[in-house]
Specification:
The complex is a heterodimer of chains A (434) and B (265). Chain A is of the alpha+beta class and 434 residues long. Chain A is 43% helix and 18% strand. In chain A, the strands form 5 sheets. A 4-stranded mixed β-sheet of chain A has the order 1-14-2-3, with helices on one face. Chain A has a 3-stranded antiparallel β-sheet with strand order 6-7-8, covered by helices on one side. In chain A, a hairpin with a 4-residue loop joins strand 7 and strand 8. In chain A, helix 4 runs antiparallel to helix 6. Chain A is globular. With 265 residues, chain B is of the alpha/beta class. In chain B, strands 2-1-3-4-5 form a 5-stranded parallel β-sheet. The chains are: A alpha+beta (434), B alpha/beta (265). At the A-B interface, helix 1, helix 4, helix 5 and helix 6 of A face helix 1, helix 2, helix 5 and helix 9 of B.
Chain lengths: 434, 265
């Protein structure tokens, strides 16, 4: 508290998030005057440089938006282009794609739970220091992550920026022996993930109930990954083709990421594991659902700090799904790639990245090259909701000292597992109190 | 760097990038192994511990693409005894260096509705274009094994064993049939540095240059060969102008294809 009664806190780097951003908060008495979550990750202009590129290059290019969830970009890009060109793939190709997505969910969620988020609950600066007092916990997380990576290597050819994904399917069908070889690790991973659900559901959660407008895909048969309609807790039910009529990206002065709002009210909304869990609970595969029930998880979950539980449940689900897919893979898929002819066309698609809904739209020109692309990542959709959470949480915690208040704000932001590299398409924290 | 009494202090810095190379550090094979041998004192993606410099080893991910980052890298250089760039962005400007052939206002207009809030340089360039760099680790992403080898070599004070030969050598070593010869696919393997284990040809597809130009790469000979064999020049231009398109050898080849009036950027 300065002599004139104004209290200012500045934290110049928010850690344990992917990318670079900052938070600016100004408190006047108990009133929150400003709560801006800003992203100063340098813009990389993907939507521009995909123009004039070949359709077949798109999966290799858009992967580079994010090293943590490249598959989500590849899947959405491929499926949007396939819709544009009327390419129908096979059930075998779609199952392998789902297996690849399972791998990405497992590694991304395992990383976030064990190395980035658990330290907040257990009072540690990192997974590295946590590993000194709870080595079994961190080693389990790293092994889960390694198993997710292994799936991505077998199906995608590489864990970060897979090279086997193609418009129309895969460059090469993975060997059945390699797929079968995943089974022992996956059985271990499913059991380990059930243990993760038990452990994280016993964490101490700050009281904070929210009435979110949750948005996710929903599929008639499966827990959503690459297919389904876009639904919301408020009753929205649309095809991805209509996404831009219901959601809008807006530019704000404090961020190089665009922020999305839901129309017509222009309100913030929630995407990600918590939104999926709440909208698609009935579709969780049996072990994931049993793990949720055994841990006495209230449904729907309205506390964002509990998103770590949703993430853990989704690891169980992804392991179960991966096991199911691997078990039915008795022969290498053939064909592994559906050939296609280029023509002038437009198409859009949405999938579920580990961090939530992701939307792409492309227009292919008469020359067969990409003429236009638009990409909406999960974190720019959650950015408005993160700010709303901070604004609503802050009045209740002004009694905390500066260090604790800052920590709580950072913890809140990490509840979202924000991927800032994606959203620009880092985090520094400034708190001013008066 | 001979072994000293206290473990060396390691810092990781991020510029414009996708986080994928840092993520290689967080892998089971990498993180705990490295954390045993060095003190990780600045690594925002992994830890809230943020200690000021100086640092013994600085790993830099990402390219320089904003006025602020062009200043920040100078300070990072001042704080680091050994500065190592990790990945294609830091080493050649990365995929976002594709802007270097365009007009920035067109790029901003393609993504953002209005311009005033975006502070961006017209180019995305390698770290070595701004400050002296002690070692460059290639790849999009880097290979975790190469990273562990590099840190081990630094700690032991020996030269890191990182190959400078081409992807072709890796294809031969793993017994992959040449996609350029057998399938007629234009492949960058002959001119691209090894390190990826030649995964693309092993998946029946062309190498697209993730590890950047190999030592003494003869691009003109290769693109000329593909062109005579029937690949359109504009397609070749896109091939060399990719992940490492602004690396000097790839850049020269792309510019030459374009200047010959054969390209259609």
């Amino acid at each position: 508290m300065s002599s004139d009664g104004i209290r200012k806190i500045s934290v110049n780097a928010l850690a344990r998030v992917e990318g670079e951003g900052s938070l600016h908060v100004r408190l006047s008495g108990g009133r929150v005057e400003i709560a801006e979550f800003s992203i100063f990750e340098p813009p990389r202009f993907f939507e521009k440089f995909i123009r004039g590129r070949e359709v077949r290059e798109v999966p290799d290019l858009v992967a580079r938006i994010c090293g943590i969830c490249p598959v989500a970009y590849q899947m959405t890009g491929c499926l949007a282009l396939e819709r544009a060109l009327g390419i129908g793939t096979t059930a075998g190709i779609e199952l392998l794609r789902r297996l690849l997505s399972c791998g990405e969910w497992i590694q991304s969620h395992a990383l976030h739970i064990h190395l980035l988020h658990a330290p907040d609950f257990l009072g540690h600066e990192s997974g590295i220091t946590l590993a000194k007092v709870a080595p079994e916990l961190v080693e389990r997380g790293l092994r889960l992550k390694a198993i997710g990576n292994r799936i991505m290597e077998v199906v995608g050819g590489r864990a970060v920026h897979p090279i086997n994904v193609a418009v129309g399917g895969f460059h090469k069908a993975p060997a059945v022996a390699d797929l079968q070889g995943l089974l022992p690790d996956l059985e271990w991973a499913a059991a380990a993930a059930e243990e993760v659900v038990r452990e994280v559901s016993r964490f101490d959660f700050p009281d904070f109930a929210r009435g979110y407008e949750s948005v996710s895909l929903r599929h008639p048969d499966d827990y959503p990954m690459n297919q389904g309609r876009i639904v919301s807790s408020g009753g929205l039910d649309i095809d991805a083709t209509d996404y831009e009529s219901h959601f809008e990206e807006r530019q704000v002065a404090w961020s190089t990421a665009l922020q999305s709002v839901m129309l017509p009210e222009a309100k913030p909304y929630l995407v990600g594991p918590l939104a999926r869990f709440n909208l698609c609970y009935d579709q969780l595969p049996p072990r994931a659902r049993a793990a949720a029930e055994a841990a006495r998880i209230a449904w729907p979950m309205t506390n964002p700090f509990q998103s770590i539980i949703a993430r853990a449940i989704e690891i169980v689900a992804a392991c179960e799904e991966a096991i199911r897919i691997v078990r039915v893979a008795r022969a290498a898929i053939s064909p592994c790639r559906i050939p296609f002819e280029l023509r002038e066309a437009e198409g859009s698609h949405a999938t579920e990245a580990p961090r939530g809904l992701i939307y792409h739209r492309y227009r292919i020109g008469a020359d067969g090259l990409v003429a236009f692309g638009t990409i909406v990542p999960p974190t720019s959709q959650n950015q408005g909701q993160i700010e709303a959470d901070l604004r609503d949480m802050l009045p209740g915690i002004t009694g905390l000292d500066d260090a604790a208040l800052t920590q709580r704000c950072e913890h809140m932001i990490r509840n979202y597992d924000p991927c800032i590299s994606c959203a620009t398409h880092f985090l520094a924290l400034t708190v001013e109190r008066s | 760097m001979p072994a000293a009494s206290a473990p060396p202090r390691l810092a990781v810095f991020k510029f414009a990038s996708c986080d994928g190379c840092q993520l290689q550090l967080l892998d089971a094979a990498g993180l705990l192994e490295i954390a045993e041998r060095v003190q990780i004192v600045h690594f925002l993606e992994a830890t809230s511990r943020i200690e000021p410099g100086p640092y013994d080893i600085g790993l830099v991910e990402g390219s320089i693409s904003t006025p602020h980052d062009a200043e920040r890298i100078r300070e990072v250089r001042r704080q680091c005894r050994f500065l190592i760039t990790i990945g294609a962005c830091a080493t050649s400007g990365g995929i976002q260096a594709l802007r270097n052939w365009g007009r920035l206002d067109e790029f901003i207009g393609a993504v953002y509705a209005s311009k005033p809030y975006v502070d961006s340089l017209a180019t995305s360039t390698a770290i070595a274009d701004h400050v002296p760099v002690d070692f460059e680790l290639r790849g999009c992403p880097i290979d975790t094994g190469q990273l562990v080898e590099l840190i081990t070599a630094l700690l032991l004070g020996r030269k890191p064993r990182v190959p400078a030969h081409s992807v072709c050598v890796e294809c031969k070593a793993r017994g992959t049939v040449c996609v350029a010869v057998a399938k007629g696919v234009p492949c960058l393997g002959p001119v691209t540095q090894a390190g990826c284990h030649a995964i693309c040809p092993a998946h029946d597809r062309e190498c697209f240059g993730c590890f950047g130009p190999a030592e003494a790469a003869n691009l003109v000979s290769l693109t000329g060969f593909y062109e005579r064999r029937g690949t359109p020049a504009d397609s070749l231009l896109r091939l060399v102008r990719g992940i490492n398109g602004y690396a000097p050898a790839f850049r020269a080849a792309g510019d030459e294809l374009e200047a010959a009036g054969r390209g259609d950027p």
